[in-house]
Task: structure prediction
Amino acid sequence: VTTFADCGFLYPFVCKRPSFDDCPNSCTHHGRCEGRTCICDRGWEGEDCSKPNCRDRNDCGEFGVCVGPNICRCRNGWQGRACTVSYCNRFTSCKTCAMSVGCGWCDQRQT
Result:
């Protein structure tokens, strides 16, 4: 974030002199600078707000990986914004469930 210094003493001339902040990498355009500290936007973290996070997506749960700011890449067999929805068919036995590609989970309560 670049702010502009007051140049009022140069009136009537127009003057905008950049005054640079002291934040690392100018918060990589994913946050705002306050003094020397970056206040990161949602979906970003780190000293300079350069690392994406998926906190709003429950860190993608146990079936996904965070690949961007609140963007999850789900493992085979899972879908949804936080990779919490299975798209595998219901199986009649755990044996058929385990043999289906991408559907290696089994719930003994299935009928």
